[in-house]
Amino acid sequence: MERYIHAPLDADTISSLKAGDFVYITGTIYTARDAAHKRMSETLAENGRLPIKLENNIIYYLGPSPAREGRPIGSAGPTTSGRMDKYTPALLDLGLKGMIGKGRRSREVKDAVVRNGGVYFAAIGGAGALLSKAIKKSEVIAYEDLGTEAIRRLEVEDFPVIVVMDAEGNDLYEKTAGDVVRNGSDRD
Amino acid sequence: MRTIQTAEITKQIREMCIEANYFLSPDMKQAIEKAAETESTEIGKHILGKLCENMKIAGEDMIPVCQDTGMAVVFMEIGQDVHFEGDYLEDAVNEGVRQGYRDGYLRKSVVGDPLIRENTKDNTPAVVHYQIVPGEQVKITVAPKGFGSENMSRVFMLKPADGMEGVKQAVLSAVKEAGPNACPPMVVGVGVGGTFEKCAILAKQALTRPVQEFSEIPYVKDMEQELLRKINETGIGPGGLGGETTALAVHINTYPTHIAGLPVAVNICCHVNRHVVRVL
Ligand code: SF4
Questions:
Q1: pLDDT of A18 higher than 50
Q2: A35 inside 8 A of chain B by CB
Q3: How many degrees, rounded to 5, is the angle at CA B233 between CA B38 and CA B268?
Q4: Which of the four pLDDT bands, split at 50, 70 and 90, describes residue A179?
Q5: Where are the domains positioned within chain B?
Q6: Which residue from B50, B108, B181 is facing A188, i.e. has the nearest CB?
Q7: A126 — contact with chain B (CB < 8 Å)?
Q8: A178 pLDDT band (50/70/90 cuts)?
Q9: Whose CA is nearest to atom 3 of ligand 1?
Q10: B44: Cβ–Cβ under 8 A, 6 or more apart, which residues?
Q11: Which of A19, A59, A176, B20 could bridge to B242 as Cys pair (CB 3.0-4.6 Å)?
């Protein structure tokens, strides 16, 4: 099914999304990948504060290529989500609702998605030029020193994703590529 | 004896890094376009259609095909009658990478130390493989490698008794484990024989072979075809979301090995399988 939704998310929207739905997101989302997740988890442990508000928000696992003059962003496709698995359950427990990436998640992430009523989307891996067209604005808002791995706030318009894991824990990859929680998902 | 200025190497590498990241080679482009026609599942066809659109936008609007513009892998086949003049050759290669990634708006994805993990901010150093060959030419291959698929690559030290069946199983298990993480449709490079490190280099080199060009060794060609069929029967499909097009090609390179061993390396590449070749 095709769905047009708004970000940040609300509970009704999330519960209506089903694994396999084609979804177009409009609104505000945030980027964070490996180094930003590591730093967020360290600052959480230190003082319990994060540079972004997680409640109802979506994190896109993205490290874009540099923007040319006059453009909001460079190539902007998803990176492999499994590397964030170690940090993700804690973020979901703090209110994060959505994630955009590619590839399988761990059992712990799946449990946290179900426990918190979240959703995991896949964007098409390796389609960074195409996906960049749906990003209208991009601003670094934290961890600037991390370069491509800094946290960015993005304004997106009809950003195309597919629901891989819905709030009930249904998982699209299970039917195609084996269970999300196969051995080895923590190694990539 | 022929003299080549290393400044010329820098210039070529700079251009090749940019070319590789904006324009997939004609063989890759054709393979993806053909798959978009033949794929029979609706979702698979949809994803492959988007990948064709992506390649078009990349070239027309000058946006890298993928945001992971890779770690630069460079193969240098150097004729033994060539003499280099200028900076140290590897410095010249790295200078080319530095300029290409800066001027081409490519992502800097290299950390200077694998555990301290500070970004070098210019995508250097490259991983350079040298081979001395007869003649007085230099053949350069630039193959920027993304790590979504690199992380799913594997080395297996099989026993001689495992034989052909063992090799096939190793390849299939690596591909299944890679699944959606490696941005399928994949290209699968396989190295069989040699030593622990040799088979890995063979596998990497296999990725630079034009797709759908088979091995010249008849039994190896048979294996390549059989494995491609079996991989496409797994149902992983484009994006790992289901379909028949899980891989576009399987390339196997072989080398003599020791009486006691059967090393096998499986280097997985995504559909953004970049390789640019120039001969000086
Ligand atoms: S695996 Fe390939 S297509 Fe996927 S993000 Fe990495 S470089 Fe891009």
A1: yes
A2: yes
A3: 90
A4: very low
A5: 2-19+66-144, 147-272
A6: B181
A7: yes
A8: low
A9: A126
A10: B237, B238, B241, B242, B243, B244, B245
A11: A176
Residues 6+ apart with CB under 8 A from A148: A63, A64, A65, A66, B107, B108, B109, B119
Mean pLDDT of A135-162: 96
Asked if the Cβ–Cβ distance from A65 to B270 is below 8 Å, we say no
pLDDT in tens, A115-130: 999 999 999 999 999 9
Q: What is the pTM of this model?
A: 0.94
Q: Please indicate if any CB of chain B lies within 8 Å of the CB of A63.
A: yes
Tell me, what's the pLDDT at A177? 62
State the distance from the centre of ligand 1 to the C-alpha of A102, rounded, in angstroms: 10
For the cut 60, the answer to whether the pLDDT of residue A63 exceeds it is: yes
Confidence at residue A88, expressed as pLDDT on a 0 to 100 scale: 97
The phi and psi torsions of B149 (rounded to 5 degrees) equal -85, -35
Question: Strand B138-145's sheet: what is its strand order?
Answer: B127-133, B71-79, B138-145, B276-279
- Pocket residues for ligand 1 (CB within 6 Å)? A 77, 125-126; B 66, 68, 146, 148-149, 182-183, 270, 272
Distance CA A34, CA B133 (A): 41
Query: What CATH architecture applies to the domain B147-272?
Result: 2-Layer Sandwich (3.30)
Asked if A107 contacts A181 with a C-beta cutoff of 8 angstroms, the reply is yes
Q: What chain A residue is nearest to B180 in terms of C-alpha separation?
A: A103
Residue A183: its chain B contacts at CB < 8 A? 177
Classify domain B2-19+66-144 at the CATH topology level.
Dihydrodipicolinate Reductase; domain 2 (3.30.360)
Task: Give residue B66 CA to ligand 1 midpoint distance, Å.
Answer: 6
Provide the pLDDT for residue A185.
40
Below-50 pLDDT ranges, chain B: none
Q: What is the mean pLDDT of residues A15-38?
A: 97
**3-state class of B161 per DSSP?**
helix
Q: Structural domains in chain A?
A: 2-168 (3.20.130.10)
